[in-house]
């Protein structure tokens, strides 16, 4: 269960309180879509220019509310790898819906819309396949090269 500040809170208000800030959604996007799973990669490749202190605070918050887990990198004892939890994985369709809405009412970069446009249509089977791929990568720790090609394609986006 996610941390609930008030058990009498409206579910929309609770969702907004838990993950309703810009940076949390962007960090989840970077980890889920672009396979940016370490602090340094998240900081260096973030498109929106997140600051080091904000990234550290938001990663800790996402860990506290159980949207992320951390595992140690086998090749470097101090390196942390941030992984999505089941709760974060099931949040991805909401992120796709947000992207669809932005694409419909504004003009986001084609560079980012093109690879995910099939997922913006709301095709439940396609989205479930994507979510299953995320589960393999983040919960079962299967390398992206052994999962659907879309994950490798997304990881190549700079």
Q: Total number of β-strand segments?
A: 2
The name CATH uses for the topology is Arc Repressor Mutant, subunit A
CATH superfamily: Winged helix-like DNA-binding domain superfamily/Winged helix DNA-binding domain
| Tally of contiguous helical segments | 8
Q: Any idea how many domains? A: 1
Gyration radius, to the nearest Å?
16 Å
N-C termini distance: 34 Å
Report on this model:
By secondary structure, this protein is mainly alpha-helical. The protein has a single domain, classed as Winged helix-like DNA-binding domain superfamily/Winged helix DNA-binding domain (Arc Repressor Mutant, subunit A). It has eight helices and two strands, in the order H-H-H-H-E-E-H-H-H-H. The protein has helices at 11-19, 22-32, 39-45, 52-64, 86-105, 110-116, 124-139, 149-155, and strands at 68-73, 76-84. It has a two-stranded antiparallel sheet. Strand 1 and strand 2 form a beta hairpin. Helix 2 (22-32) packs across helix 5 (86-105) and helix 5 (86-105) crosses helix 7. It is globular and about 45 Å long. The model has no long low-confidence stretch (mean pLDDT 88).
List the defining traits of the structure above.
single chain; mainly alpha; 2 strands; two-stranded antiparallel sheet; 158 residues; Arc Repressor Mutant, subunit A
Summary, kept brief:
With 158 residues, the protein is mainly α.
